[in-house]
Each structure stands twice: as C-alpha cells, then as structure tokens.
Amino acid sequence: MVVEGTATADLRLGPGHYPGTPLPGQPGNAAIAGHRTTYGAPFYNLNELVQGDCISVTTTQGHFRYDVTHVLVVPPSDLTVVAPSPTPELTLTTCNPRFSASQRLVVQASLITPPATVPDHRSQSRPLRSLLSGLAGGQSNWTGALGWGLTCLALAIGVWALARGRRRPAVYYALGAVPLLVVLFFFFENLSPLLPASF
C-alpha cells in the first residue's frame, strides 16, 4: 500500500507518493519515498534491485509493469531524481546507507505496459522544492521531546538513587525498568518527527 504524501506522519503509515508527481502508471515521473529501517522498513531491500528487474504496481487505473533502468546514490539535496519526465517512469527513493540519512538511494524504472490516462483535475506543476516539504522532520517544536527526555533522566536518576546502597539493587533496577521503558517510548515518539526522516 502507498499513502499520499511524504511528510513524517505519512511515511509512518507506509511508502508515500510525492505530491505533485503523477500516479504510478500515468505519463511522467511517478515518485514514491519509503523508510528503509523504521516503520515497517518497506524499502529495506531496495538496494537489491538491479537493472532489468520488474516492478509491478496496481492502482485503481489498472496493473502496470516497470523495468528498472538505473540504481543511483545521490545527496538528499538532489531534486533532479523526482523532476518531471516526458516518458512514463517510476522513481523509488529511500535513505542510504541503512540507519543513516546522509544519502538517498534511488531506483528509476521505465513503464513497459501502456500508460493510464491523466485526469484533468490533477496538477503536475508543483515546484520541485515543494515536493520535498516535510522530508527533513518537524524541526519546530522540541517541547514534547525535551519534557519526556527530562522525565526519563529524572526517573533514571531516581531508580539509581533508590538502588544505590541496597542489598539487592537488581530488584530496584528491575522495578524501575518498566516505567523507564514507557517514558523512553514517549521520548522517542516525540523526538523522531524532529529528526531528518530516515528513508
């Protein structure tokens, strides 16, 4: 399944279609981004595709076959890979290497089956910069992450202080581990949208 949009919240649900690019099967460069190591890691093995491999896509307009033409590694600032194209193409993007957002792994494929028609109401003219809005994380509200981080630190220090000097410190550590893991979960939930997206 592919969702519409490439913002952090969209890509948590699955691979995201770049707004402003055609839908798969339609003429032009249909572009889809996906996480490589988080949120189900739908593009974890994207690096295994090679030239000539088949990519099958099914939409409400039909079933479409693409053949891989290029596998590239580009900087995150390279917007040419999602630029409009006169020929029907599919571009898949994710982070490279795994567990890093320093580069983008890009797989480009050409449509082999006949293209679908483009509905008149879809606009193909959004600027390239707007295609990537939201891909770098929220960067605006650190309050939640900071609050949960301080709570986590305070809880860890509290557990350590209670366990220190006791005959059985492991019992205190074990009892403190559950609430600490809960607080850590909320800390990372608030922190992850603020970091560069890990495709």
Structural write-up:
This protein is of the alpha/beta class. It has 2 domains: 3-117, Sortase (Sortase, Chain: A, Beta Barrel), CATH 2.40.260.10; 143-194. The chain has 4 helices and 7 strands, in the order βαββββββααα. A 7-stranded mixed β-sheet has the order 1-2-3-6-7-5-4, with no helix packed on it. The longest helix is centred in the last third of the chain and has 23 residues, at 169-191.
Which SSEs are present, and which pair or pack?
Elements: E1 3-4, H1 8-11, E2 16-17, E3 29-33, E4 54-59, E5 62-74, E6 89-96, E7 103-111, H2 128-131, H3 143-163, H4 169-191
Parallel strand pairs: 1-2, 3-6
Antiparallel strand pairs: 2-3, 4-5, 5-7, 6-7
Q: How far is it from the N-terminal to the C-terminal residue, by CA? A: 16 Å
Number of domains: 2
Please give the order of strands in the largest beta sheet.
1-2-3-6-7-5-4
Count of extended strands? 7
Q: What pattern of helices and strands is seen along the backbone?
A: EHEEEEEEHHH
Rg (C-alpha, Å) = 22 Å
Could you name the ranges where pLDDT drops below 50 across 5 or more consecutive residues? 130-139
Mean pLDDT: 83
What is the highest CATH level, the class of the largest domain? Answer: Mainly Beta
Shape: elongated
CATH topology of the largest domain: Sortase, Chain: A
**Going by CATH, what is the homologous superfamily of the largest domain?**
Sortase
Strand content: 15-25%
Overall CATH architecture of the largest domain: Beta Barrel
Strand count, sense and barrel status of the largest sheet are:
7 strands, mixed
Structural class: alpha/beta
Roughly how much helix do the residues carry, as a percent range? 25-40%
What's the helix count? 4
